[in-house]
Amino acid sequence: MKHLLKMMDLSTEEIIEILNLADQLKYELKHGIPHDHLKGKTLGMIFRKASTRTRVSFETGMYQLGGNPLYLSASDMQIGRGEPIQDTARVLSRYIDGIMIRTFDQAEVENLAEYGNIPIINGLTDLSHPCQVLADLMTIREYKGKLDGLKMCYIGDGNNMANSLIVGGLKTGMSVSVACPENYHPAATTLAFAKKYDCFELTDDPIKAAKDADVIFTDVWASMGQEGEAEIRKKAFKGFQINDEVMAVAKPDAMVQHCLPAHREEEITAKVFEEHANEIFDEAENRLHAQKAVMVLLMGNKD
Ligand code: CP
Ligand code: NVA
Questions:
Q1: Complex ipTM, two decimals?
Q2: What residues does L-ornithine bind to (predicted)?
């Protein structure tokens, strides 16, 4: 594993290795056991989009590992004025030890990896959100004790979260049922991968997708960059909501996960959100632990 560009690039073994190390680092943090595996290392964090969780968890995680996080707003960098990402990759590779980038186009992340010679971590693109899904898998495993054999359901937009959840769920042995409106399906590359699995289902019926699910996911109807489509999307996604009717057909002990930020009464009711708030905020916390594992494996010498 040289980079974390998308879930599709990770093998099942690599995902499990990350989750196991994340569990260990979480234990060490909670028990005051030092784990400064990235002493003297610097992570550059390039943001072309807003963030609360990704920025703060990477920054804090880097400090906890003994390293130095460097926040780089794209609008303050020369890439914001058109400097090619290929040149940015080659310059930053001379100064720092790794780059986390949050941007629009997946190609920008792939280009950084191709032209630089330091590890690149995808902190969200329009196509994928691997750091979030590693935290999600970690949280499901904490609550359910396993991943293999569980049923994951995703209801809503076939966006970056849907793409990464489908791949991450299938690779870890889960069956995955996705309910999206017809014009909002996951990416063609995701569907091509998923269709090889008998345990994958794509439907426009949220109740069908949620039936007997162990964990139910949703995400915003309008992602970052789609603000202008918010009203059209509100109409298109009507009915694609996690609510009591959906929860009633899932397993009685089904979890709910949401990467956050959440829009109450749009993709999830306030009632269901609050009933599952512990699981959702554990999921947010696990961003920290899962990303620390990714950084140690990519940038560090773990003794
Ligand atoms: N879930 C997530 O990535 O949150 P932020 O946009 O706040 O980083
Ligand atoms: N799909 C959302 C996820 C936010 C963490 C977005 O891209 O805005």
A1: 0.99
A2: 160, 219, 223-224
The per-residue pLDDT string of the chain (303 residues; one tens digit each, 9 = 90 and over) reads 899 999 999 999 999 999 999 999 999 999 999 999 999 999 999 999 999 999 999 999 999 999 999 999 999 999 999 999 999 999 999 999 999 999 999 999 999 999 999 999 999 999 999 999 999 999 999 999 999 999 999 999 999 999 999 999 999 999 999 999 999 999 999 999 999 999 999 999 999 999 999 999 999 999 999 999 999 999 999 999 999 999 999 999 999 999 999 999 999 999 999 999 999 999 999 999 999 999 999 999 755
pTM for the complete prediction?
A: 0.98
- Architecture of the CATH domain 1-127+286-297: 3-Layer(aba) Sandwich (3.40)
Minimum-distance ligand 2 atom for the alpha carbon of 132? 5
Per residue in 193-221, is it b (16+ CB within 10 Å) or e — as a string?
A: bbeeeeebbbeeebeebbbebbbbbbbbb
User: Is the peptide bond preceding residue 69 cis, with omega within 30 degrees of 0?
Assistant: no
Residues within a 6 A CB radius of ligand 2 = 124, 159-161, 219-220, 223-224, 259
* φ/ψ (deg, to 5) at 227: -55, -35
What backbone phi and psi angles, to 5 degrees, belong to 297? -65, -35
54 lines ligand 1 (CB under 6 A): yes
Numbered residues of the known binding site for L-ornithine: 160, 219, 223-224
